[in-house]
Amino acid sequence: xxxxxxxxxxxxxxxxxxxxxxxxxxxxxxxxxxxxxxxxxxxxxxxxxxxxxxxxxxxxxxxxxxxxxxxxxxxxxxxxxxxxxxxxxxxxxxxxxxxxxxxxxxxxxxxxxxxxxxxxxxxxxxxxxxxxxxxxxxxxxxxxxxxxxxxxxxxxxxxxxxxxxxxxxxxxxxxxxxxxxxxxxx
Length: 186
Description:
The protein has 186 residues and is α+β, with helices and mostly antiparallel strands. The protein has helices spanning 39-49, 51-67, 125-136, 155-165; strands at residues 99-106, 110-116, 140-142, 147-151, 174-179.
């Protein structure tokens, strides 16, 4: 029977109110179980509780499989595992360790202090940047080059603060590298 529904009309082969069958595993209508992530468990539940609907589902899946490419239908998985960040161990223990303090001009009259080389001492750069930001009441961040950028000219104070905070860094390895080139940030 070919039933076409016109707007505002009632189908002749459908009895109202509609009886909707819900899956006991995913609690969705059984027509929507195929979109659930545990579709196999839904099929097991359906075969135990509604065997006639399970047979219809298997016939429909067989027809769809023959129409497409005869293989299994690939299901899209949403989300996924994020990429894990791998910390680079670029510093050798034999290489001479030093910390270089540089001041650069950002914009017209904004100054930033760049601390390079603290990663060689196995110091958490994010924690150090947070410490500097709270110590000097300014913004501080870690760049992709494993440098710490501190807003403001605090180079002279850093010469004293770094050895006091981290005992593993002697004062002799901290160098004042002078003025750096103009920063590209605005």
